[in-house]
Write a structure and sequence with these properties.
By secondary structure, the chain is of the alpha+beta class. The protein has 13 helices and 24 strands. Strand 18 and strand 19 form a beta hairpin. The protein starts with a helix and ends in a 6-residue tail after the last helix.
């Protein structure tokens, strides 16, 4: 047992210098020989004055000393040492067991108090405990220093709050606002509320709640923010609030500057020309990287004959060309059918359309895609569900009270609209024109007949046909009948999708 502890002490004592102070020459020789089995660097002195001089020159981390010695006692020496290096570990070995010596040694700062002559096991235990304490303190210092460096020199802005008040900020934060320290910042800006500027879709303080209340209610969520820097420039930063573990009412807020992407306009519906930014693949990949690094939630959306299929998705890999996501088996099936998908996230300015699916791995439930761009609107933004018809529905189009005799079919149908495919356009056919629609829809009871006026909302020219979208308003009875038809159709599509089998 002694040999095992001795080996561990030798390991811990590597590169540690010990100072041993004892006025008894014979005892000093014996203890130095014992210490030589553990320590490579040993200093010895005959009294406190000589010991203190050696300490000043060599700064040993461990001191073993007697108390009663000529010229300077061990307690006086310890006071001087502790004044210079408070972390020095001091072990007293003394024949004095009086209470006043013990109390004074405690007041000076002792690590261990051993009776003279000290037994070998007692001394080894004291050395082991002292070295372990020194190792812990050194590791903690390294950890704290590393943590400080990480906090202070991260590329993003960091602020630590306690009970809603900022207490620590990093250097990047100070540089961003052009201030010397946190006090200087608070003098310049009064509060954090004033730095977050109003912008559509962004986080900022309102009359109803502050940005801090909103972020605290959603820890880990990513928020877009607009902040003016010390050069009076609008900056676009993504904010995330995280709770500090085991520290009540303490949070860290990080702000990642993404101004270089020029995306502020994407969140403003009055912005004029976003097409170039929307179609920039590099911009999409940057946002994907932000999502991936922050473990933010991502959802994958697709449609099976108008039926919305939405599942949570995880980004598992990405590079400068492609992204790999992991999702549910049902999404894999639908993506194989339609060959594309959209992905949404709280951090995206809009949904991402993934047009080029390179690989679908059913065994690992992975999808690899490369061609992607932001889109202003996606199918999951629809207010009303639009479903493909069963095929037994009938539709007739009347333009200027004249029946259209060309080929016509229903592409999809909702409670307020129809998308129709026409083989040709009637004369003088244009947007916002009023037409009449006659529908016959199958239901569980008698067929539902609807005759209604409709407005042409959109006309799309295809290679060999035209798609037109018409909008209408139904009276209460027909509205109820249409709702029943759509509900039944939706249930049919759900059963159809669940039964769908695709060979991987």
């Amino acid at each position: 047992m002694v040999s095992e502890k001795l080996l561990e002490i030798q390991r811990l004592a590597k590169d540690i210098t010990v100072l041993y102070v004892e006025d008894n020459a014979g005892l000093r020789t014996n203890i130095v020989q014992l210490l030589g089995k553990v320590f490579v660097n040993i200093l010895s002195a005959a009294d406190g004055l000589e010991g203190y001089e050696l300490f000043k020159k060599n700064k040993p981390k461990l001191v073993i000393t007697d108390i009663n010695m000529p010229r300077m006692s061990g307690l006086e020496m310890a006071k001087k040492i502790k004044a210079e290096e408070p972390d020095t570990k001091i072990i007293y070995i003394t024949a004095y067991n009086e209470k006043e010596y013990l109390l004074e040694a405690i007041n000076v700062g002792t690590f261990r108090y051993l009776p003279k002559p000290a037994k070998v096991n007692q001394l080894l235990d004291a050395l082991y405990d002292a070295l372990k304490a020194m190792q812990y303190e050194e590791n903690k210092h390294l950890y704290d220093t590393q943590l400080h460096d990480i906090f202070n020199y991260q590329n993003n802005l960091l602020i630590m709050f306690q009970n809603g008040h900022p207490v620590i900020v990093n250097q990047r934060f100070l540089d961003f606002f052009g201030v010397e320290d946190l006090d200087d910042f608070l003098k310049k800006y009064t509060s954090m509320d004033s730095i977050l500027k109003a912008h559509q879709g962004f986080l900022f303080s309102t009359g109803e709640h502050t940005w801090y209340e909103e972020a605290s209610a959603n820890p880990g969520k990513l928020f877009h923010t607009k902040i003016v820097d010390h050069q009076e420039q609008n900056r676009h930063l993504i904010m995330k609030l995280r709770e500090v573990p085991n520290k009540a009412n303490s949070v860290i807020v990080s702000l990642d500057d993404v101004t270089e992407l020029n995306l502020l306009a994407l969140f403003d519906k009055n912005a004029v020309d976003n097409d170039k930014v929307l179609q920039d693949k590099k911009t999409v990949l940057t946002f994907m990287k932000i999502v991936n690094e922050n473990n933010a939630e991502v959802k994958l959306h697709n449609f099976y004959r108008g039926l919305t299929i939405t599942n949570p998705t995880v980004i598992v890999h990405m590079d400068d060309e492609q992204v790999v996501v992991k999702t549910s088996y049902s999404q894999l099936k639908i993506v194989k059918l339609v060959k594309n998908m959209t992905i949404s996230s709280e951090v995206f300015p809009s949904a991402v359309l993934c047009k080029s699916v390179k690989e679908i791995d059913f065994d690992k439930q992975l999808i690899t895609f490369s061609d992607m761009q932001f889109i202003q609107r996606s199918g999951n933004d629809r207010k009303n569900i639009r479903l493909e018809p069963e095929g037994n529905e009938k539709v007739t189009l009347f333009v200027d009270d004249k029946k259209f005799f060309g080929e016509i079919r229903i592409v999809d149908i909702s409670i307020v609209s129809l998308k129709l495919e026409l083989s040709a356009l009637p004369p003088h056919f244009e947007k916002e024109m009023t037409v009449n629609i006659s529908l016959v829809l199958p239901t569980s009871k008698a067929p539902l007949s609807i005759n209604t006026a409709a407005t042409i909302y959109r006309i799309d020219e295809l290679e060999r046909s035209f798609h037109i979208v018409v909008l209408f308003e139904l009276n209460e009875a027909k509205h109820k009948g249409m709702a029943e038809y759509l509900s039944n159709r939706q249930m049919t599509l759900i059963r159809e999708f669940k039964a769908l089998e695709i060979k991987a």
